[in-house]
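Retro notes (design track)

What went well: tokenization of the new backbones is finally stable.
What didn't: we kept losing track of which sequence belonged to which structure.
Fix going forward: every design gets posted as structure first, then sequence, in one message. First example under the new rule, 120 residues:
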């Protein structure tokens, strides 16, 4: 019943900015950590950053200082604000969340992905 839906991807020029959103819906007891991953052509999926239920963040080194993760627990939404984008940021970006549907059942959910292309 739980779904994660990403939005906000698109084409942006180098140096530009973009904000991604990921909203959770369905039968949710609680949401733990939420994160963003990305997968570029020919590469493995990698962690971009994550945010705990209390708002503590961590980032992959290459995006530190450029990307910011935030969340709105009332909206069950996590955001990825991306700035100073480079072509190396081009990838499909996926939202991930650890969600309890009951107090005793916890699962990891993934969104469908949204394409981010950084090109001049």
């Amino acid at each position: 019943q739980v779904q994660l839906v990403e939005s906000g991807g698109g084409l942006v020029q180098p140096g530009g900015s973009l904000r991604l959103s990921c909203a959770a819906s369905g039968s949710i007891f609680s949401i733990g950590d939420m994160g963003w991953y990305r997968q570029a052509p020919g590469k493995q999926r990698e962690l971009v950053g994550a945010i705990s239920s209390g708002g503590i963040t961590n980032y992959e080194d290459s995006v530190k200082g450029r990307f910011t993760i935030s969340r709105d627990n009332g909206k069950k939404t996590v955001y990825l604000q991306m700035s100073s984008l480079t072509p190396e940021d081009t990838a499909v970006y996926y939202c991930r969340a650890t969600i309890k549907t009951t107090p005793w059942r916890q699962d990891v959910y993934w969104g469908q992905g949204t394409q981010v292309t950084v090109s001049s």
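Added context from the reviewer: The CA atoms of residues 8 and 63 lie 18 Å apart.
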